[in-house]
Design a protein that fits this description.
alpha/beta, Rossmann fold, 2 domains, 5-stranded parallel beta sheet, elongated
Length: about 350
C-alpha cells in the first residue's frame, strides 16, 4: 500500500487502521520524519512511535523523543533500549517490536527500503511515505553532516539544539549590549537580552535596593537560561547572548563577596560555542543604573581570569564599534563554517534508517 492511495480518502475519511507504527532513530528528528508521523496519525486511530536507542548516539534518546512528543503530540512516543540488532535484521526487529509493544501493529509507516520486509515479518500492512524524498528532500544523515545547510528542514526545538551560541560578556559600560545587537542584526538572527539588568531596573527604586540575596541571583540565572533556550528556537543558525549564567555567578561574587554553588550549578554544562569579552578601554558612561567606573577594570580582569581558568573559548574585543563587530563576525563565520556537530560526531554516527 502506498501513500497516494491513502491520500485520496482525505484526512476526514474514517481511519484505515486501528494501530499504526513508526520506528526509527530520528537522529535527529526533521520535517521529513514529522511528515511521516503525521501521515500515520492521519490514517490510524492510534500511533506509536518507537525511538531506537543504540549505543553511541550523541543526541540522547529522551531528547529525541521529547522533540517528537512536542511536534506530534497525537502520537504515543516510546524509547526502545538498545536491541543489539543490525539495521538490516528485519526479522529480529519485528520480533523485538512485538515484544516491546505486546502485539503487532496493523500498519507500519516508513520511508525506507526495509519497510516491506519488516512489515512482512510483523504480519501487517506497510505504508511507504515519500520514499524518494521528493516532498521532503532531507535525511538524518544530511542533517548530521551539516545542520546549517539543512536548517529549513528543522523544527524550532531541533534548531534550538543545533544553533551556535555566542555570548558577549564584560564589565559595565564596555559595549556588551551594543555588540550583541549589532551581531544579531548582522546575521538577522535572535539575541538574548540581559535579564539581570531588567531585574535591577525594577528593583533599584525599592527601599532595600542595595541589598542583594543569593535567591535573587538564582532567579536571574534561571531566567537567563530560560530566555536563551527559548530564543535559540527562533535563531537563524546563530544565537547571540548578552551575558549568560556564567556571568551571573561573577556578579553574585561582586555583590555578595562569594560564589554561590547553586548559581554555579545553573551555569554548569552550558558552555557556549564562543565568548566575546568587551574591552574596558572605551569611555565609561553612567546611565543611572551602573555601579561606577571605579570597579570596571577589576570586573574586566575577573571575567578574563574566569574565562581562562574554565578553559572557555573567547576573544577579547577592543577598538571602535565597527572594529569589534568585524572581528566578532569573523569568529562567527568560522563557527558556522565548521559545525561542532561534524567535528565531534563523524566517528559515532550511525547509518540513516531504523
Amino acid at each position: 500500500m502506498n501513500l497516494p492511495e491513502l491520500e485520496v480518502a482525505g484526512a476526514a475519511a474514517p481511519k484505515r487502521f486501528a494501530r499504526g507504527l513508526v520506528i526509527g532513530k530520528f537522529y535527529p528528528f526533521h520535517r521529513g520524519h514529522r511528515f511521516l508521523v503525521e501521515t500515520a496519525v492521519r490514517h490510524c486511530a492510534e500511533v506509536t512511535v518507537i525511538v531506537c536507542d543504540p549505543e553511541g548516539q550523541l543526541i540522547p534518546a529522551e531528547l529525541r523523543a521529547s522533540w517528537i512528543r512536542e511536534m506530534v503530540p497525537a502520537a504515543r512516543t516510546v524509547i526502545a533500549p538498545d536491541a543489539h540488532l543490525a539495521d538490516d535484521d528485519s526479522k529480529g526487529w519485528a520480533g523485538y517490536t512485538i515484544k516491546l509493544l505486546g502485539r503487532a501493529p496493523d500498519a507500519v509507516f516508513t520511508s525506507e527500503d526495509y519497510g516491506d520486509k519488516y512489515a512482512g515479518f510483523l504480519g501487517c500492512a506497510h505504508v511507504s511515505v515519500d520514499r524518494d524524498r521528493r516532498r521532503w528532500p532531507v535525511s538524518g544523515t544530511l542533517v548530521r553532516r551539516d545542520p546549517y545547510a539543512n536548517w529549513e528542514w528543522l523544527d524550532p526545538p531541533i534548531r534550538g539544539y543545533f544553533a551556535k551560541r555566542v555570548v558577549v560578556v564584560g564589565a559595565e559600560s564596555t559595549g556588551t549590549t551594543t555588540l550583541a545587537r549589532d551581531l544579531a542584526a548582522h546575521y538577522r538572527t535572535a539575541w538574548v537580552p540581559e535579564y539581570g539588568r531588567t531585574y535591577w531596573e525594577g528593583k533599584m527604586t525599592a527601599r532595600d535596593a542595595a541589598v542583594w540575596r543569593t535567591e535573587e541571583f538564582v532567579h536571574i540565572a534561571k531566567m537567563q537560561n530560560e530566555m536563551e533556550d527559548r530564543l535559540a528556537r527562533t535563531a537563524d543558525r546563530l544565537l547571540v547572548c548578552d551575558t549568560d549564567s556564567f556571568a551571573t555567578r561573577l556578579w553574585h561574587e561582586r555583590y555578595l563577596g562569594f560564589m554561590s554553588p547553586e548559581v554555579e550549578r545553573l551555569g554548569a554544562g552550558r558552555d557556549a560555542d564562543w565568548y566575546f569579552l568587551t574591552g574596558d578601554e572605551v569611555p565609561f558612561v553612567q546611565d543611572g543604573t551602573r555601579d561606577g567606573e571605579h570597579i570596571r577594570h577589576q570586573m574586566h580582569e575577573r571575567f578574563m581570569e574566569e574565562l581562562r581558568r574554565q578553559g572557555r573559548s573567547f576573544t577579547l574585543l577592543s577598538g571602535s564599534r565597527e572594529e569589534r563587530l568585524r572581528e566578532a563576525a569573523a569568529v562567527c563565520d568560522r563557527l558556522l563554517g565548521d559545525p561542532k556537530w561534524a567535528a565531534r560526531a563523524q566517528a559515532a554516527l550511525s547509518p540513516a534508517g531504523r
